[in-house]
Design brief:
The chain is of the alpha/beta class. 50% of the residues lie in helices and 7% in strands. The protein has one domain: Rossmann fold. The protein contains 16 helices and five strands. It has a five-stranded parallel beta sheet with strand order 3-2-1-4-5, with helices on both faces. This is LPS biosynthesis protein.
């Protein structure tokens, strides 16, 4: 662990990640790990197009005769929206799946409806009981852990697997991509597949009279069933052929009337509040550093431009006050409750019962192999 402040010589990652390390030239482990991921997982240009075409052919063949040949999550954000366009271009027949957790913006809902109608893609929306989901989020806040978004991310992951199994398909189209998301410190969050962690925190800090019947979840046993027996795979579509979010947004605006967001993950008011206020204020974690550093590693942003952008405040002061009041009130926290939460000693998911080790691909070789299957990293590797 590095005690004195230091910033990476190649990216903008710094010692706000307590587990960061630096080599003799002052380059962080994050840069080296991102470059290694890009080398293995990112296939821009014609080679990438050849690979994704081969994968699409396999998906179409296996899905012949079925209503859908793959499942894709949609949030109204740029990445998942562009996956829908790529799926259409590749001749795939996805079922779009959306998780309504009570935090959607009107813009997000409009983007989903416009895009899917134009592309003639069916939509399934799973609406969670608000009182149930609110109690999970309240529990995570009271536990004083950084990654409150694990509640949504776990439910989305579980829902996608459940829907794939229900419809008998093996492929989940993903909007995650190493061009913009190759770096995210483990100390800033916790693996969203860890159902034991969420359940333990809910049991300790939540209202035991409120259940979780509407909450999709994924036990380790079920996860292994989906991966090893049903052989369900994520296909990171945007890792093939090159991906520019700015160009993608422009295409969607011109062709589908897509409404762009001022911020990354602007499709959810809660995500914006979580990333731009809660994390940096309570924990000192600025997720822009990870996002910008990923882009620096992939060559789509300069370090100088990233440093300049970090000088700007994430929130307009008035807008921040409005969002704090709105989100805390929606979650049922009084002003005193919220002050207690923000001043409570920071904790981590590993301070509570968890199965994080099951998903730690950095120290468990078997988990690393399972991760490659789950993320579809072995798909299309033979294409030339």
């Amino acid at each position: 662990m590095t005690e004195a402040y230091q910033i990476c010589a190649r990216t903008v990652m710094d010692t706000s990640d307590p587990a960061i390390s630096f080599d003799a030239e002052g380059v962080s482990n994050h840069f080296h790990e991102a470059r290694a991921r890009l080398e293995k997982e990112y296939f821009p240009g014609d080679d990438g197009m050849t690979r994704i075409e081969a994968i699409a052919e396999q998906i179409r063949a296996e899905g012949a005769g079925k209503p859908y040949d793959c499942i894709m999550g949609v949030s109204g954000g740029a990445d998942s929206s562009y996956v829908a366009i790529r799926a259409h271009e590749l001749g795939l027949r996805p079922l779009a799946v959306h998780l309504d957790n009570g935090w959607n913006t009107d813009t997000a809902v409009s983007n989903i409806e416009l895009l899917l109608r134009e592309l003639d893609i069916d939509l399934y929306t799973h609406v969670m009981d608000w009182e149930e989901f609110k109690d999970i989020q309240r529990s995570l806040f009271r536990a004083s852990v950084p990654n409150i978004e694990v509640a949504t991310d776990h439910a989305i992951t579980a829902l996608l697997y459940h829907m794939a199994a229900k419809h008998g398909v093996r492929y989940l189209l993903s909007g995650s991509n190493v061009e913009t998301e190759s770096i995210l410190p483990r100390s800033w969050g916790h693996d969203n597949r860890d159902w034991r962690s969420i359940k333990a925190i809910k049991r300790r800090f939540g209202n035991l009279a409120i259940g979780m019947k509407s909450y999709p979840h994924l036990t380790p046993t079920k996860f292994l069933e989906y991966i090893l027996l049903r052989k369900i795979r994520f296909v990171p579509v945007l890792n093939y052929g090159g991906y520019s979010k700015a160009k993608a947004v422009k295409v969607m605006q011109q062709s589908f009337g897509y409404n762009a967001y001022a911020r990354k993950h602007g499709e959810s008011r809660f995500t914006r509040f979580f990333q731009e206020y809660y994390l940096p204020t309570k924990f000192g974690f600025d997720k822009r550093r990870a996002h910008f550093s990923s882009m620096i590693a992939s060559g789509t942003l300069t370090r100088e431009a990233a440093l300049a952008e970090l000088e700007h405040d994430m929130y307009d002061p008035v807008e921040k006050m409005i969002d704090i009041e709105y989100c805390s009130r929606k979650l049922g926290f009084s002003e005193a409750d919220w002050s207690d939460i923000m001043h409570a000693r920071p904790a981590h998911a590993t301070d509570y019962p968890n199965n994080g080790w099951l998903y730690d691909h950095t120290s468990n070789r078997l988990t690393a192999i399972i991760r490659k299957f789950a993320k579809g990293e072995l798909l299309g590797r033979k294409a030339k």
